[in-house]
Structure formats: structure tokens, C-alpha cells
Design brief:
The complex is a heterodimer. Chain A is mainly alpha-helical. Chain A has 2 domains: 66 residues, no CATH class; 249 residues, MetI-like fold (Orthogonal Bundle). Helix content of chain A is 70%, strand content 3%. In chain A, β1 and β2 form a beta hairpin. Chain A starts with 25 loop residues before the first helix and ends with a helix. In chain B, strands 1, 2, 3, 4, 5, 6, 7 and 8 form an 8-stranded mixed beta sheet that branches. Chain B folds into 2 domains: 169 residues, Periplasmic binding protein-like II (D-Maltodextrin-Binding Protein, domain 2), CATH 3.40.190; 202 residues, D-Maltodextrin-Binding Protein, domain 2 (3-Layer(aba) Sandwich). Chain B is globular. Chain B is an alpha+beta fold. In chain B, α9 runs parallel beside α11, α10 packs antiparallel against α11 and α20 runs antiparallel to α21. Classes of the chains: A mainly alpha, B alpha+beta. Chains A and B meet through α1, α3, α8 and α11 of A and α1, α3 and α20 of B.
Chain lengths: 341, 442
């Protein structure tokens, strides 16, 4: 940030200014200088102070903890360098948790985005009671995840759950939703999808509405049907928003905790009897609070942080590439349009 | 999924919270500022589950005008453990009186110096009130008494009369006790009766294997650790033999492979999915709660027999401790002593079904008489039966990782035999592998 005003210096005052009686007092001068230079920083300071307090400090402190052998209750027991990281990177349970996280993430993110785009496209049409439909898709997002998990957990119950009861009346074998890997991932992904699809749909809808209508009209006049218009015009136009949605879904998906934690809350090992759906955050919680290994839990937290940063950078690179393609695409359009008119 | 999609909103909320903290900062400080003994003292108490103390608090406040009690009750023992651990690790925020469950007592004992030695506040004068093993559990390795025992969990056998009748087995609770071998009841006999039941009805005999395994281990003079604190699972012939007995019974179909603590929201208790159930005193309230939740009542047929396979066993029970963080250890110790005296424990039993650890309370008419719970169990003399079931219980040494071994080493193995995914031998090997990974090479 640069200051827009340059304070007057003696060399600036030209001799043909006789009406200026004296120099401004140093105090007023410094005050105004301070105001100009520092005020903007003061205005934004609260956020950064809070971020430092509740974001940066825990981050650094967690790193310090991760370099020590550290029992949750009895405290630090010696510096071990990167041993905790090495131990976790060779621990099959860490990799199991990472596999579960990515699996649940993919099972939730992909159907969720496809569904959100379709819902947004429908809501973008001229339908009756627009506001009603738009608010309706947001309702699952308003419900607290704990309540969502309780309801889904009951429906997915293996012996008494609604879904298996229906399957059995149709003479289909019951599915072991809570003790087998793929079914449990599907069940948890369904909770995530239920909660987030509508939210993402609304964001994508906003992007769709920003697409100039005259492009659609000219395309329609050129004979492009609705499907063609959707794939060739709507989708490319909302790409930056898609990238945003993908990034937030990635960050959130890698940190999933509530759903697997409460999916089967009575199980002895958090995340399923054989850790079938123990995600990484759940694993680190288990390490810290059941196994009291604060050092290793902190190491896992940092590993997860690095993985999320990695995903974020990847997303950023992809999005920058797409954005540049985007601008070329729009520039070409503009040229074409110019030629036509 | 994503928890912080809108950084700005979060910042705004955080800002508001920070201001609120500043505004309330002074009032939070007030409670900890202590003065002379005549001054007003506010004591914070953290309990969990149902401990039946509410009326006792009111009584204590009436008797001690300078004391105000601020109770917090946490829903389950596990959540209370997390709460305690977090505050203990942070070094601040613990109450003056903290209830501790037997299941995580071993974790507490690791840091017993963070708890006040109650001998400094008169524990020696009252230590004879408890059954001796309860006092032993609350004594740390340096001989400091860090907790006053509240309830204990002597185990008896719950059984379903209707189910027993359908299988042609006796239904009278004394005949049932004899059926399982009375005072000489063994696990072999229990599984033998189970086979008879299974042959007659084709149904499972117990809900799942975990509670049985828990009882089997707790009955041993030494469990997962030796008395000297050495880990003792691999190569422990006693445990291995018990595991074989349990897993072969389970493999023959005696387990209903239910999810413990869920039981289909209680439905498994009402549709005769299983016929017997492991019942420490406090579990009677759980059974009643489950049956009621699924729409059943006393006529569902649950009864309580004065017998337990393998002899006397204890599961659970709690202690009241005074963390060293407390600013009023003297007043806190006095309150803990009051809440655990014979009269208070008898009162709590009437409210919450928690069986007293104080000998005098075990014969109190409020405990031995009939109450709501005994009506539910076909007028079984619950208090009397539990008092007899408490006879012969010994305090087993629990090592620092006892609860991890119980839940994360044997929990998965139990699930494997219950669901038929592995036979007993394979599940035992899996358990040992988990033990090496989670406990030995942690």
C-alpha cells in the first residue's frame, strides 16, 4: 500500500507564495502523516490481531508440540525432532485415515458438484415462485450437521434402520452401512451431499445469472438448443465460480469430522470398529484424546495442513490456467461480436 | 464439510466474542477470588450421566449458608473424560469437585499429583466408610487418597422371563440363579445354558460379546497388566483361554451381534433378540431406559438374578476428586465427603440407581427397599442382590493404557468374532497386532 499524499517539504515551497504565514506545526504535521500512513493498517488490524491470536499462534504452537514427545496430561517429555512425522508417515492407520478422507471426499464432491450445477441450471430458468425454490435448496444447509448425522445414522442402522428395512422388504440383502468400508463411505458422503449441494447450487446460480442474457439470445437465434447452450455457454462462463466451489469443497472435505464422528457414536474405536471410516481429523482427535499422544496428533495436524496447502496450490494453478483460457475465450467472443455487428 | 467458508463472518463473530470476553472478564474473575473462611465460597462441581445429586446440593447449601454450589452435569462419562483432559492439559478451568469414572481412573492416576491428597482434609477419619477395594482404587502409588468413592458396579445377571419361558427354562429368579450354578457359576455353565436356549428357540443368548469379555477380564486377579504394572496380554494363558471360550460360544451363534449402547434404540431389548444381559447396578437404569425408549415396560419381562458367571465382578463406579487447581480445596473436600456419606449415597441410589460404595448405605432401607427400578424388574430386591454381588470383588490394577486396550485392541477383535469375519484364533492374533501397534510401540 502506498500513501497518496506527499507531505510538503521546504524545498517544495516556492518563493512566490507570500501569503503563507508560517510552516504547519510539527505536531499537526506528524498527526496527519500518521493518519495517512497508519490508519488503514489500524482499520484492518483487528482481523489480523485475532487471526494471529486464534490462527497463527495455535499453528506455530502445534508445530512446537509436534517436535516433542508430548503426553496430553503429563506434558512434554523431550525434544524428538521430526520423529513424530516419521512415525506417522509409516503408520498404517495414518494412511488408512488419508485413504478414507480422500475416498469420502471424492464420493461427496463429484456428485455434489454435478447436482449443484443441475439444480442451479433449473433455478436459472423462468420458473414460478423463484424465491421459494431458491430458499428451499438452502434448508439442508441451515440444519446443524449434528442433527443431520443423527437422522442419517438412524436411517443407515444395520439391523433396525429404515434403509435396510426397505431393502429387506424388496428381498435385497441388507447392506452393512456401519461396518464395511465402501457402504460406510457412501453413507457419510450422502450426508455431506445432502447438506452442501443446495449451498453450492445457490453460489453457482449467482454466477449463472451474471452471464449476459444477450449472448443466449444470439445463440438461440443461431439455432443452439438448450442443451448446447448449457454446455457451450453456461458452463464455460461459470468456470471461475466452479473453481471457488471446488476449492472450498476440497478444504472442507479434507477436514471432515462431525459426520464420521457421530455416524456410529457408540463404536469403541472412533470411525468404525475396524477404522473403516476414520478420517484424518478423526484419527488425530483419537490420537490426542483417547491415546493421549499430543505430539503425534500435532504432527498429523501439520501433515494435514501441508496436504491441504498442496491441494490449494494445485487448485490455484489449475484455476489460473483456466482463467487465462477464459479471458482468451471472452476476447475471441468480443472480436467475433464486433465483426458481426 | 467446510466449516469456514466465510472468513469475514467468522472474523466478525470472533471479534464480537473477544469483546464479550473483555466485558465479562471481571465477573469470571470474581468466583476465584477467595477470602477468609467466613466469606462466601462458590464451589463448582462437574458430574456426568445421572448421579442423583441435585437434592443433595440444595440440602448442603441450606446447611452451609456461605457455600454456593454451581453444578455442571455432562451427558456421558466419555465426554466428561474429554472435558477433564482438555482442562487438565490447559492447566485451567477444572471445577472444585470433579467426578471421575473408574474407566478412566488409570489416566487420572498417571497425573495423580494434579489432585489434592484428601488425607490433608480428613480422609483418614472417614476412610472406613467404603468397601476396602474402592478405597484402594482411589489411593495412588504414593499412598495419597485422591478420590472419595461414590457408587460401585457389582455385576448381576439380567434375564428375560418371557424368553426363558419360551425355551422351557425356569423363570423364577432364584431357580435361574441355581440354573447358572449359584455361587459356583462359571462361564462354561453360562454358555452351556446358552446352547440349551439356542437349541430350543434358535435365538441368540447375549447381545454382543464385548460386555462379557469386559467382565471376564475384570474378574481376573490381574487383567491386561500385572500388579507391578507390566503389560501382560501376549502369552497370557488365562486371558487366551477365556478368549477361546468366549469366541467359540459366539461362533456357535450365541451372540446377537448388536451394537452396544445402541441396541436399535432399545428395540433389541423388547423383541427378544437376546435373553440375558450383563448388569452392573447402574446398568439396570440403562436397561429400563432402553426398554422404555422402544415402547416396552415391566411386562417386557426383564428380571434380575443374584448370580454372575465366573464369580464376583465389578464394572464402573465413580469417585469425587478435588483437582489441585481448586482455590477452595478444604470446602471442596468437605462437599465431596458429604456427597459420598452413607445417607447421601442411599438418597442417590433411590434417584439414579447408583449402588453405594459405602458399607453402611448398602443396608439402608432406602437401598434395600422397593423403588421404581425394582418394580420394573418384577419386584426384584435389587439393593439386596447387588449387596451380595459386591461381596468378593477385588480391585484389579489398571495400567495407563487399560482403556485403550479394552476399546481399541479388543474392541475390533470382538466385532470380528461377533460379525463372523474372523474366528477366535485369528481375532486374537489381530488383537495382539493392534496391541503392538497402539500400546507397545506407541
Amino acid at each position: 500500500m502506498t500513501a497518496t499524499l506527499t507531505p510538503p517539504t521546504s524545498s517544495d515551497t516556492t518563493p512566490h507564495e507570500p501569503y503563507r504565514p508560517k510552516q504547519r506545526t510539527p505536531f499537526a504535521y506528524w498527526r496527519s502523516r500518521f493518519d495517512v500512513k497508519a490508519s488503514p493498517y489500524l482499520y484492518i488490524a483487528p482481523f489480523f490481531v485475532l487471526f494471529g491470536l486464534v490462527g497463527l499462534f495455535p499453528l506455530v504452537y502445534t508445530f512446537v508440540v509436534s517436535l516433542n514427545e508430548w503426553n496430553l496430561l503429563s506434558g512434554p517429555a523431550g525434544f524428538v525432532g521430526l520423529d513424530n512425522y516419521v512415525a506417522e508417515l509409516t503408520d498404517p492407520f495414518f494412511w488408512n485415515s488419508l485413504f478414507n478422507t480422500v475416498s469420502i471426499f471424492l464420493l461427496s464432491a463429484i456428485p455434489q458438484l454435478v447436482g449443484a450445477v443441475l439444480i442451479a441450471a433449473v433455478l436459472d430458468q423462468n420458473i414460478r415462485a423463484k424465491t421459494f425454490w431458491r430458499m428451499s435448496v438452502l434448508i439442508p444447509y441451515v440444519v446443524t450437521p449434528v442433527a443431520v448425522t443423527l437422522i442419517f445414522s438412524s436411517a443407515f442402522d444395520e439391523k433396525y434402520g429404515l434403509i435396510n428395512n426397505v431393502l429387506q422388504t424388496l428381498s435385497i440383502d441388507p447392506v452393512m452401512w456401519k461396518t464395511e468400508t465402501l457402504p460406510s463411505h457412501l453413507a457419510i458422503a450422502s450426508m455431506v451431499n445432502w447438506r452442501w449441494t443446495g449451498y453450492n447450487a445457490l453460489i453457482l446460480l449467482a454466477a449463472m445469472q451474471a452471464v449476459p442474457r444477450d449472448i443466449y439470445e444470439s445463440a438461440a437465434l443461431d439455432g443452439a438448443g438448450p442443451v448446447r447452450r448449457f454446455f457451450s455457454m453456461t458452463l464455460p462462463s461459470i468456470r471461475p465460480t466452479m473453481i471457488f466451489v471446488v476449492i472450498t469443497a476440497t478444504v472442507g472435505g479434507l477436514q471432515i469430522f462431525t459426520e464420521p464422528k457421530l455416524f456410529n457414536p457408540t463404536t469403541a474405536t472412533p470411525g468404525g470398529p475396524q477404522r473403516q471410516y476414520q478420517t484424518t481429523v478423526l484419527y488425530l482427535w483419537d490420537l490426542a484424546f483417547n491415546r493421549q499422544n499430543f505430539g503425534k496428533a500435532s504432527a498429523v495436524a501439520w501433515l494435514l495442513f501441508l496436504i491441504i496447502v498442496l491441494f490449494g496450490v494445485l487448485n490455484f494453478l489449475i484455476s489460473r490456467r483456466i482463467a487465462s483460457v477464459e479471458s482468451r475465450f471472452i476476447a475471441k467472443k468480443a472480436i467475433k461480436k464486433g465483426k458481426r455487428s | 464439510m467446510s466449516l469456514s467458508r466465510r472468513t469475514k463472518a467468522v472474523a466478525a463473530v470472533a471479534g464480537a466474542a473477544a469483546i464479550a470476553l473483555l466485558a465479562t472478564g471481571c465477573s469470571a474473575g470474581d468466583s476465584s477470588s477467595s477470602g477468609g473462611s467466613g466469606d462466601k465460597v462458590e464451589l463448582t462441581v462437574t458430574t456426568f450421566g445421572t448421579m442423583g445429586y441435585d437434592d443433595l446440593y440444595a440440602q448442603y447449601e441450606a446447611d452451609h449458608p456461605n457455600i454456593t454450589i454451581k453444578p455442571t452435569n455432562i451427558d456421558t462419562g466419555d465426554n466428561a473424560k474429554t472435558d477433564w483432559q482438555t482442562k487438565a492439559a490447559a492447566g485451567a478451568g477444572l471445577p472444585d469437585v470433579q467426578a471421575v469414572e473408574e474407566g478412566w481412573l488409570s489416566a487420572v492416576m498417571q497425573v495423580s499429583d494434579q489432585f489434592t491428597d484428601l488425607k490433608d482434609y480428613g480422609a483418614d477419619e472417614i476412610k472406613d466408610r467404603w468397601v476396602d477395594w474402592k478405597l484402594a482404587q482411589a489411593t495412588d502409588k504414593d499412598g495419597r487418597i485422591i478420590g472419595y468413592g461414590s457408587d460401585i458396579g457389582p455385576e448381576g445377571l439380567c434375564y428375560n422371563r418371557t424368553a426363558f419361558e419360551a425355551a422351557g427354562l425356569p423363570t423364577d429368579r432364584e431357580e435361574v440363579a441355581t440354573l447358572f450354578g449359584g455361587d459356583d457359576a462359571t462361564w462354561d455353565k453360562y454358555f452351556e445354558v446358552g446352547q440349551q436356549y439356542k437349541a430350543a428357540t434358535g435365538k441368540a443368548f447375549y447381545d454382543q460379546s464385548g460386555f462379557l469379555w469386559n467382565a471376564m477380564v475384570n474378574q481376573q486377579p490381574e487383567g491386561y497388566y500385572t500388579k507391578d504394572g507390566e503389560l501382560n496380554v501376549e502369552g497370557n494363558k488365562d486371558l487366551e483361554k477365556l478368549w477361546t471360550t468366549l469366541s467359540s460360544a459366539t461362533e456357535s451363534g450365541l451372540s446377537a451381534n448388536q451394537t452396544a449402547w445402541d441396541w436399535g434404540k432399545g428395540k433389541a431389548f423388547t423383541d427378544q433378540t437376546f435373553a440375558t444381559f450383563v448388569c452392573p447396578g447402574w446398568m439396570l437404569g440403562v436397561v429400563k431406559g432402553q426398554v422404555t425408549a422402544a415402547g416396552g415396560d415391566a411386562s417386557t419381562g426383564w428380571d434380575f438374578a443374584n448370580v454372575f458367571p465366573g464369580g464376583a465382578a465389578n464394572w464402573g463406579g465413580s469417585f469425587l476428586t478435588v483437582p489441585t487447581q481448586s482455590k477452595h480445596p478444604k470446602e471442596a473436600a468437605e462437599l465431596a465427603a458429604y456427597l459420598t456419606d452413607a445417607k447421601s449415597q442411599a438418597t442417590a441410589f433411590g434417584v439414579a440407581g447408583t449402588f453405594p460404595s459405602v458399607t453402611a448405605a448398602q443396608t439402608d432401607p432406602a437401598v434395600t427397599g422397593t423403588n421404581e427400578l425394582s418394580t420394573f424388574f418384577n419386584d426384584a430386591p435389587i439393593g439386596e442382590i447387588l449387596a451380595q454381588r459386591a461381596d468378593g470383588v477385588v480391585a484389579q490394577y489398571k495400567g495407563p493404557d487399560d482403556s485403550v486396550i479394552q476399546s481399541q485392541v479388543f474392541g475390533p477383535a470382538i466385532q470380528q468374532i461377533d460379525s463372523g469375519k474372523a474366528d477366535g484364533a485369528a481375532a486374537w492374533d489381530n488383537a495382539l497386532e493392534l496391541l503392538n501397534q497402539l500400546v507397545v510401540n506407541k
